[in-house]
Amino acid sequence: MNRKRALSVLFCLVSFLASTLAQDKLYTNTFPLGQVKLLEGPFKHACDLNVQILLQYDVDRLLAPFLKEAGLQPKGESFPNWEGLDGHVGGHYLSALAIHYAATGNVDCKKRMEYMISELKRCQQKHADGYVGGVPDGMKVWNEIKKGNVGIVWKYWVPWYNLHKIYAGLRDAWIYGGNEEARMMFLELCDWGMTIIAPLNDEQMEQMLANEFGGMDEVYADAYQMTGDMKYLNTAKRFSHKWLLDSMAAQVDNLDNKHANTQVPKVVGYQRIAELGHDKKYEVATEYFWNTVVYNRSLSLGGNSRREHFAAADDCKSYVEDREGPESCNTNNMLKLTEGLFRMHPEARYADFYERAMYNHILSTQHPEHGGYVYFTSARPAHYRVYSAPNSAMWCCVGTGMENHGKYGEFIYTHAHDSLFVNLFVASELNWKEKGITLIQETRFPDEESSRLTIRVKKPTKFKLLVRHPWWADGNDMKVLCKGKDYASGSSPSSYIVIERTWKNGDVVDITTPMKVHIEALPNVSEYISIMRGPILLGARMGTDHLDGLIADDGRWAHIAHGPLVSAFDTPFIIGSREEIQSKLDNMKPVAGKAFCYTVPGLFTEKYKDLVLEPFFRIHDSRYIMYWLAMTHEKYAEFQKAEQEKEQLKLLLDKRTVDAVATAEQQPEVDHLMKYENSTTGTFEGETWRDARNGGYFQYNMMTGDESDLSLMVRYWGDETRNRTFDILIDDELLVTENLVGKWKRKELVNVEYPIPATMINGKKSVTVTFRSKPGNIAGGVFYIRLLKKE
Question: Start and end of every Glycoside hydrolase GH146 substrate-binding domain (predicted)?
């Protein structure tokens, strides 16, 4: 055989192995999505609907940022929403096409995936150095980083985070879509990225990684597993933000007020490095982070964060006060992290969390009719959620939402050697081709408390079947019956029940999982409770008044449900001790003709006596409750006396607010086009602040709402020291010169309202608000900024 022909044969062999083994080559215990067929049920509906939604997107508009950055003529206009993050959704979309092609075999998804790869290949070839990306003016930022100017990342909208999405898209086109071209492009992009950071020392890397960078450590660890080349694993470690890694490895929780979805993808990378590099420090850090987030910082639906940030323990009440509850992206990445930890240590507690988050959060973030995606899931009683529409909202949670609903088959079953794990109770059919085994799971869970597994084999086959005993099923109630034997006898919750036998064609396993109702308190806030039945969070509909912006447009903040807040005293509350409440819940009554819907006699006041509890994931186009104020009569009277006036003042302030910026919080500052020089940030009294020093400044673009009678409200600490004289400007025109020193002498935060002359705002859709320090002085700290209309 001549050399040319030998190389050709070798390439074909490698390509065949790559395309046939790609998914389980990276995720060694995972069945390829094509081997897990979803059967009728909510997850199949969500996946099928999502394919329809994906095919409505204009792929040329998603590709436009990449072509523009490569100097090629775009075939469509870039999307206007979140335009400073151009390209990020394009990467997610490529992942989603590959995932849904693998899950459903839809040929249109495959064709679009291949078209995207061909167009991205043109871009990569035009760059001629391996780069392909949609970061606006991207080559400037990458060249500056290469020169050592790592601070440039703060002048852009999270450029590494943006670029990570196309890294992941190319990788996923290979592992899910079997596309070898995408694999080669991915590795070329990896090699390019290494040249950008090669000149940087450890200190410069650490400074750069303080800016959100997605899962760059994860994709380089994946490149190492794909090639066996240590340079990629070493690069993954270079992308490991030591500020977080070291604290998590030392088992120190430093997450208070930190941007949540900046941290979770970092730890997904830590897990991959631990898994592939057998590095104990990374493993300890990953496990500690997961435990901290899951057990201390997550709500009952499995999501975490409010206003995109982790709350401090003494600020967890803000979960039920804020509009902006858990973010969908966070849970997407927590599920990825959970799968990774399960690969290393197949323990039932990981599957327990996965089930909770998948049913209650991820499934709930897709509208079951028009397929729109949800960004924030508010936990505030009687608030609501808004949904995206195709070719309109280009939020991060649209990107992960595109992917979410194709991956439902990924963790129902896993395998290890001759062991088959049944992790989730989801109607599905597994075809374990390598073993010649088919397993059919018939279930209407959670509407029914049972599942039936039927085994199909061509010849008697010996293997272990491990069925999860979930945390919510009492040991005495759980049953796993096969050939007359109850294998669940003596089993404990949050474990696996093992059936090891030689299986014959048609063998059946009947699983019974009786559910009980229980209460879970809001983290660190015992007076707010949620109601769970088994793993399912129960909520209640609270009407459809003022669902403003229910279907989002291209507005910059359209992902936030801006409709009016409802007072906590105008929502249902529960009176009684925990024992009394639990006793009433134990006697809840099914609603005739409505699966998994219940009334609870005597639980609510007369006004709400007919309130129906139902799975939260089925509540859409409505205000809702997932957390309930619950206390004894005496405690409620005290609470009402202490809080009712404060609540009314908060609602009045919210009603007056035209626009607001939570200073030093990442997303609000990006949304308001922040610019700054000589500015620092921090946290004090549980709130974040920003200042500017020695002639420095910071500024935000704020919307006026077409109002002409506005004031600027600024939140300060009431007992500042040192030199703190500064100017506040509206569109570079002086509004006021402020001096905070000795002004109040109060050990508390104070709000100051500055009237804005009409001449500064008349006819303007937005204004730039600037805080500029005097030489030798500090402007601020500023804790919060609002534009207010007249009372």
Answer: 653-788
My answer on whether 501 and 530 are in the same domain is no
| Cβ atoms of residues 528 and 627 within 8 Å | yes
597 falls within a domain: yes
216-227 and 180-197 helices cross at what angle (nearest 10)? 120
703 within domain boundaries: yes
Give the separation between CA 716 and CA 649, rounded to whole angstroms. Answer: 18
Same-domain pairing of 111 and 10: yes
pTM of model > 0.85: yes
Q: Which of 492, 477, 487 is nearest to 509 (CA)?
A: 487
pLDDT number for residue 556: 84
Residue 6 has pLDDT above 90, yes or no: no
The last residue of a domain, from among 632, 656, 680: 656
- Range(s) of the domain holding residue 760: 658-789
Q: How far apart are CA 387 and CA 374, in angstroms?
A: 5
Residue 319: its pLDDT value, please? 97
Q: Where are any strands of DSSP class E within 597-661?
A: 598-599, 614-615, 624-625, 628-631, 657-661
Burial call 680-702: b when 16+ CB within 10 Å, e when fewer: bbeeeeebbbbbbbeebbbbbbb
What letters, b where the CB count within 10 A reaches 16 and e where it falls short, cover 428-448? bbbbbeeeebbbbbbbebbee
Per the listing, tokens 């010649």 go with 436
Q: CA 672, CA 340: separation in Å to the nearest integer?
A: 36
| DSSP letter string, 198-263 | TT--HHHHHHHTTS--TTHHHHHHHHHHHH--HHHHHHHHHTS-HHHHHHHHTT----TT-BHHHH
Per-residue model confidence (pLDDT) at position 9: 43
Name 770's Cβ contacts closer than 8 Å, sequence gap at least 6. 697, 698, 699, 727, 728, 729, 730, 732
Residue 475 confidence (pLDDT): 87
The per-residue b/e assignment along 214-250, b for 16 or more CB within 10 angstroms, e otherwise, is bbbbbbbbbbbbbeeeeebbebbbbbbbeebbebbbe
Cis peptide before 781 (omega within 30 of 0): yes
Report the pLDDT value the prediction gives residue 219, as an integer from 0 to 100: 98
β-pairing, 573-575 vs 628-631, is: parallel
Specify the CATH number for the domain of residue 508.
Answer: 2.60.40.1180
489/505 Cα distance (integer angstroms): 25
Q: 190 and 128 in one domain?
A: yes
For β-strands 508-512 and 450-457, DSSP reports them as antiparallel
Q: Cβ distance 780 to 692 under 8 Å?
A: yes
Q: Is the bond leading into 755 cis (omega within 30 degrees of zero)?
A: no
CATH number reported for the structural domain that contains residue 733 in this entry: 2.60.120.260
**Alpha-carbon distance 721 to 521, whole Å?**
40
Best CA proximity match to 531, nearest among 514, 519, 523, 521 = 519
Residue 374 per-residue DSSP state: B
Contact present, 537 and 472 (Cβ < 8 Å): no
What residues have CB less than 8 Å from 2, skipping those under 6 apart?
A: none
Residue 484 sits in the same domain as residue 602: no
Residues 674 and 764 in one domain: yes
User: Is the domain of 91 the same as that of 196?
Assistant: yes
* Count of other CB atoms within 10 angstroms of residue 765: 10
Same domain, 531 and 636: yes
Whether the CB-CB separation of 705 and 761 falls below 8 Å is answered with: no
Residues 84 and 178 in one domain: yes
Q: Is 183 contained in some domain?
A: yes
Note whether residue 379 is domain-resident.
no
Which of 656, 686, 716 is the C-terminal boundary of a domain? 656
pLDDT average, residue stretch 507-534: 97
Rounded Cα distance, 336 and 354, in Å: 9
At residue 17, the pLDDT reads: 41
Q: What angle do CA 390, 391, 394 make, to 5 degrees?
A: 95
Q: State the average pLDDT over residues 409-416.
A: 97
Handedness of CA 613, 548, 359, 309 (dihedral sign): negative
